[in-house]
Each structure stands twice: as C-alpha cells, then as structure tokens.
C-alpha cells in the first residue's frame, strides 16, 4: 500500500491529464479538417459511390454525412482546451502540483469553518462563562448539545447514545476513562485510542485461553465452567497489568472493568476467547480543532447528563 503514496502516482496522474487534453486537441484537429469529398446529399447522390458519408447505413438507406464540425462548434472545443490549461496552472489538477493560486479543499474548508464559527459566536457567547453543571441545567444549551451530538457523535454511539458492539454506551454509568466533567471534556477534545494487545501467546495453549475466558466470566459471576475458571486464575496475571489484579479495570488506560456485566466487545466465552487471541483496537477521534471550545463545553455537559441528571465531579459515575 505504501506505493500509493509515492511520487510515482503524482507523475502518473499529471502525465495522464496532459496526455488526455492533448489527445482531445489532436482528435479535434482530425475531425475539423476540410473534406475534399461531397458535403451535401445532392453531391453524394451525384457521385453515386457513397463518398462523403461515414459508410454506416441504417434502415436500409439512411446514411450519415462525413462532414467536419461546424467552425463555431470547433472553436468552443478549442476554448475548453485553452481553459483547461489555464485551470491547471491556477488550481491543483496535475499530480502534486498545488496551483499558482494556492487553493486547496482543506483551505476552503478551514475558511468556511472560520466564517461559520464567527457567525455562531454570539450564540455561544452567553454560555461561555457557565460551568458544566449550569450548562446541563440549561434547556437552550442542551438543545444545542443534542444537535452537536447528532452531528458528531451519533454515527458511532447511536442517536440514543446507547452505543453498539465496540462503541461505548454513554447513557449508563459505566465509563472507561472516567465520568467526571473533566474526563468527558478530555475525551471529546483529545480523543481516545484504546488498544488491547493479542495475549494468546502470553497466556499459553488454546486450553489455557479457554480456561482464562472462563475465569474472566467468573469475575462478573456470569455462567462459566468453574473447574476451568479455577485453572485459568493464574493465567490472568498478564491481564492484571491493565485490568488490575481483581479485574476492576483502570481508567488511566481505559481498561474495562471485568467484574460488572457490561461487555463492550460482546458477551460470552467465544467473544472473550477472540479478544484474548486477537486483541482489540479502538479509536475515538479528537474533536479539538473541529469544534470550538464553547461547543466542546456544551457537548461535555450534554454527554454527562445522559447518565447523570446533574453532572458534578462529586457525583460522577465510577470509572470503568
């Protein structure tokens, strides 16, 4: 895949664009030449040899004359070719050449975003000095927060914020990185990158992995084979580095609490065995830069109140 970001492709695209335009010009020159053959039906009929036609016949006697393009039409094509060369000088279009105007989709997006932020700044100004708790209690702020959530978060967490397999439920009181306003704000602004490495080789044989899966199930008092769970206890040692010796998780690294009955990546021995053998990787993108500081503050309050009627540091949900 690294070949697709090499300089070769920039040259390939550039050559393809230039050759295509020149080929169009050549084709235009070919079809625009004056034909020495008859150019009217009367002349074609008088010649009697079919000269001056394309040679194609439809419906037994319908023939197409082989005349050059009208001059006005040919000039329109010439103008489009000249326009294409001017466009490629000013704007990007030939490989990696950026164009003399310096225009790019990224710059256009940033300019439009700045204009939109400036236009909505007065709307957010009245919320700038409010705390998370005050924002959560404001109907206007939460109406804005809902729209921000639908536009930026619902794609992964769902419109009801209850998530799905691999995407956390934001409406319960279970938090991977902590449920305080500060932690929620940090998650939204900076993003999160969670990784569980494949641990199958560290655990041992396939039987050892099955035993460990049963031990993990036993931590939450879920259905398990008690004999296998007992044999899997010692195999949990590599997992304790992140999940803790009792399996209660670690919000510093986003390690889930294995003693509750909430399963982010699916419940059951098969899902746990797959997680041990293959690991998991998840990424929540950072919204800092995409959203303004005021928008992130309102979104923090909105997400927090989904599981806490009043979001306060003291009453925040326990970390998962």
Strand portion? 5-15%
Order of helices and strands: HHEEHHHHHHEHHHHHEH
Shape estimate? elongated
Query: Segments where pLDDT lies below 50 for 5+ residues?
Result: 311-320
CATH superfamily of the largest domain: Cytochrome c-like domain
Describe the structure.
There is one protein chain. The protein has 320 residues and is mostly helical. The chain folds into three domains: 89 residues, no CATH class; 102 residues, Orthogonal Bundle (Cytochrome Bc1 Complex, Chain D, domain 2), CATH 1.10.760; 87 residues, Cytochrome c-like domain (Cytochrome Bc1 Complex, Chain D, domain 2, Orthogonal Bundle). 51% of the residues lie in helices and 6% in strands. It has 14 helices and four strands. A two-stranded antiparallel ribbon has the order 1-2. The chain has a two-stranded antiparallel ribbon with strand order 3-4. Strand 1 and strand 2 form a beta hairpin. Helix 8 crosses helix 14 and helix 10 packs across helix 11. The longest helix has 25 residues. The C terminus is likely disordered. InterPro entries: CcoP_N, CcoP_N_sf, Cyt_c-like_dom, Cyt_c-like_dom_sf, Cyt_c_oxidase_cbb3_su3, Cytochrome_c_Oxidase_Subunit. Belongs to the CcoP / FixP family. This is Cbb3-type cytochrome c oxidase subunit.
